[in-house]
Amino acid sequence: MSQDITWDDARFAAYALGVRLRDSIASVEKIPLMHALGRTLAQDVTALQGIPHYASSAMDGWAVSGTGPWRIKPRSPEDEPHAASDTLGEHEARPILTGGALPLGCTAVVRSEDATEYDGELSAPEPRLRADIRPAEREARAGDTLLAAGTVLTPPRLAIAASSGRDDVEVLSAPRVGFILSGREVVTSGLPLPGYVRDSFADFLPPVLSAWGAFQASPFCQRIGDSLEETLSALSATDASVVVSTGGTGHSDHDFLRLAVERLGAEFIVEAIAMRPGHPTFLAVLPDQRVMVGLPGNPLAAFMAALTVVQPLLAGALGQPLDEPRAVKTVESYAPLPGRVRLVPSGLSLADDSELGAPEVRVISKEHTGPAMLRGLGDADGVMVVPPEGTQPGDPVRLLDLPW
Ligand SMILES: Nc1nc2c(c(=O)[nH]1)N[C@H]1C(S)=C(S)[C@@H](COP(=O)(O)OP(=O)(O)OC[C@H]3O[C@@H](n4cnc5c(N)ncnc54)[C@H](O)[C@@H]3O)O[C@H]1N2
Ligand code: MOO
């Protein structure tokens, strides 16, 4: 019989396995910024030059030199509007755009709305010295570390790397993930007859795994019926370092995933998890260090299992921290379920009766949350972790974020 481990231990075991996997596939790749979202920097990103690298105007208006009124130096039509092509003498002014390089001799910028132009002369209230001038190197000096190795690239961090003049970044290699979708009864188009089901995973799990940072293996997605031979041949056909299967995790004479993994001499890290849904989920390491994740066939159970073990596994493999679920309060009553965590698709609402005077996030379970149902998840804002002892309204609970 399978040995259950607790939900929290399963997350930690998956994360630790990811860290081990990172060491076994350890390598670094240089990739364009546009593909680097969510990846972990393998090297510091330093400023190649100052940021900003030149002094510029913070406003549309006039670059002026000394005190007013100023004689207007017209721009020639060939001038690049942002370039600094000229020098201002004392009491001279010329038009300037936001971000435009300051002409030599410029002592302040006068905003267009504050200035009056008349007969080649500009007058305005006297600006203070260096008014509306953005000095060079205000954000960073050349050589400063902008992003340290180990940082996970978020959208603003990609923009920081771009502003340093880089087109590529060195990141830790992402694990290649491949799917084996099992089940002779699964059809991929049209209305299924009784005894058959329409596939729920091909449109669902690949984007979820990409959002968690996985890289597609080749072949990416293999469909198999229910036999040991097909399972073994799919396992040998993939170049994935993480193989994720769906269905066939049970112990019936139609379930072959565990058998195939045992046949290959794998070490089981997790045999089953004390959770609902998703109990039969397993995690194993093959002798060649490939990781095998067995997700159950029931669609909601498969996603909850992926949230529990695949996300931490990938976070570990990508050099990222293990996310702590958010602390929120529930409005729901759940009876105890000794030993088992329940994962419940939930909505969020703001309660304004908080004693702290600040609005408080409350979670409310959704309907249609059976292991084979997806409608509740479709409406959810997060996944509530109901502890084995159950809950009363107002109790603190943990909430897992969704990857979309
Ligand atoms: N005697 C027992 N039976 C079951 C147990 C148990 O402890 N004792 N556990 C139940 C639980 S919990 C789950 S979850 C499932 C796990 O089943 P498997 O992982 O072996 O998956 P299958 O039997 O292959 O399929 C289950 C269910 O899911 C449907 N399925 C499979 N693939 C897809 C797909 N791509 N898209 C949509 N639906 C899919 C499949 O048709 C079945 O209906 O076992 C329970 N039984
Ligand atoms: O994993 Mo199963 O019912 O708990 O769907």
Automatic annotation (TrEMBL):
Is this entry keyworded Glycoprotein? no
Q: In which pathway does it act?
A: Cofactor biosynthesis; molybdopterin biosynthesis
Its BP terms in the Gene Ontology are: Mo-molybdopterin cofactor biosynthetic process
Question: Which ranges carry the MoaB/Mog domain?
Answer: 178-316
Q: Which controlled-vocabulary keywords does the entry list?
A: Magnesium, Metal-binding, Molybdenum, Molybdenum cofactor biosynthesis, Transferase
| Entry GO terms, CC | cytosol
Q: Which domain of life is it from?
A: Bacteria
Residues spanning the signal sequence: none
Q: Which cofactor does it need?
A: Mg(2+)
Q: Where are the transmembrane segments?
A: none
Reactions catalysed: adenylyl-molybdopterin + molybdate = Mo-molybdopterin + AMP + H(+)
Q: Name one GO molecular function term.
A: metal ion binding
- E.C. code: 2.10.1.1
**Listed PANTHER family:** GEPHYRIN (PTHR10192:SF5), MOLYBDOPTERIN BIOSYNTHESIS PROTEIN (PTHR10192)
Family membership, please give it.
Belongs to the MoeA family.
Functional note: Catalyzes the insertion of molybdate into adenylated molybdopterin with the concomitant release of AMP.
Write the protein's name: Molybdopterin molybdenumtransferase
Q: Which organism is it from?
A: Neomicrococcus lactis
